[in-house]
Design a protein that fits this description.
The protein is α+β, with helices and mostly antiparallel strands. It has two domains: about 1-30, no CATH class; about 30-95, Double Stranded RNA Binding Domain (2-Layer Sandwich), CATH 3.30.160. It has two helices and three strands; from the N terminus they run αβββα. The chain has helices at about 35-50, 85-95; strands at about 55-60, 65-70, 75-80. It has a three-stranded antiparallel β-sheet with strand order 1-2-3. β2 (about 65-70) and β3 (about 75-80) form a beta hairpin. The N and C termini lie far apart (about 35 Å).
Length: about 100
């Protein structure tokens, strides 16, 4: 993706992308559908509080959500084919850091 001035993303960077700031939307249903945003936020906050990073994606066939946690040099991947499994995983991540 092109970077805008000062290294940031700008509207032109998203032109033609399905992530267009100008009203583009993600296409097709995914395992993320139905997962409460609060649950996602709680998981992100827990990972960040531990000093780690998290990345969310969908498999190339769109059939599973992929959650990757970066812990130092290690990467931990988890695949969830359905929103219920994804929500359980995210709740578990959020509860694992107190």
């Amino acid at each position: 993706m092109a970077r805008g001035k000062n290294g940031g993303n700008d509207e032109a960077s998203y032109a033609g992308s399905r992530w267009s700031i100008m009203g583009g939307e993600a296409q097709d249903a995914s395992p993320w559908d139905g997962v409460e945003s609060e649950v996602i936020g709680d998981a992100v906050r827990a990972v960040m509080a531990a000093g780690d990073a998290v990345m969310f994606s969908v498999t190339s066939d769109g059939g599973s959500a992929r959650v990757t946690i970066f812990e130092g040099d290690a990467k931990h991947h988890q695949y969830c084919p359905a929103s219920a499994a994804l929500e359980r995983l995210l709740r578990g991540i959020a509860q694992s850091v107190d």
